[in-house]
Amino acid sequence: MTSTSPLKTVILPSDQDSTGRDLGAEELELLEKVIHSGTLTSTKGFFTRSLEERFAAMLGVRKAHACASGTAAIHVAVAALDPNPGDEIVTTSITDMGALTPLLYQGAIPVFAEVDPLTLNVTRKTLESCLSERTKAIVVTHLFGHACEMGGIMDLARSRNIPVIEDCAQAYLARSDGKYVGTFGAIGCFSMQQGKHMTTGEGGMVVTSDESLARRMFLFINKAWGYGDPNPDHYFLSLNYRISELQSAVALAQLEKLESVVERRIAAATQLTRMLAGISGLKTPQVEPGAVHTYWKYCLNVDGSAIRDGAVGLSKLLKNRGIMSAPRYIQKPAFMCEIFQKRRTFGTSQYPFTLARPEALDYSPQRFPLTLKALNDVLVLPWNERYTEEHLEYIAESIQESVEQLRI
Fold this sequence. Notes:
Largest sheet: 7 strands, mixed
Structural class: alpha/beta
């Protein structure tokens, strides 16, 4: 990687189209079966039930229920815990809004925890300082495919008798101490959106080994209608979050490929980490002892005191080489968005913020120095299962030469 000659641009595969996705004959075959069956609704079909059974078996949990999206999965999980209006749910300051709005729709108050500045994950320590007598649940997000420190987090949660929801949207088959994420807490949530390890375009999954939670999640997905009950009714307020048989057919084919997809992502990431070793001012992804990182994305930590303009500067040079990286991951912490700053929820009511403790709504930047540092330093590289040796060499050379150009 010492060449200074101009690089020939290499076009990288993308998870937004067929170049970076394992979609093909297997999905088409199952889709054809659905079409020929004439049954596209999951309430009458075979494919969704089969998907749920195989997904649960893969993780070693009792129940899995498919739903419309990763956002729906979080909503289903929160609804299963049935918070009272004004109850607090502690969550991460760095996450997609789709993991936060379901809390507000259920009348709960998101309380934001700090993150580890290198992994961008919440920790036992950052969560503990956010707990109160009003805490109904904890949501942990296994960001970028790296498991949170679940041993310590679960010890904390058990000591306070607080259920844990795991957001595994970016972390299929990630593990902590030999155990799959999604199986530590009361409920695990997954996404099958376009860029995830397995995709149906949109789609989600919730998993649990608690029969009562499984029952409530099944009902919430189905407008609380008791399908199969002797005298079914709409038992409580809920929505239609069902997935279709068409999506489930694609998901079944994708599930068969998941282990291979994850293995290829890990192998490519491991190789790139070796290639980037020793570059001053740059840290490759941190993998905690006992964890298996499954690399939804590949993240670099960029030291702005050694590399001019930090992650933003490096991103600009990589863009010139066709590598579309994302400095900061998200432009600002979730709580800085207008929905929280201006409390724009239901009409002009500001509900459920009107029920919150003042301390829970303190979004002062000085309260979140680790979050701000994490976002300032992170550079998120695109990642998928189709990277070859040529792609990795191109990425590594582009990064090294860009860093040297920006060296302070």
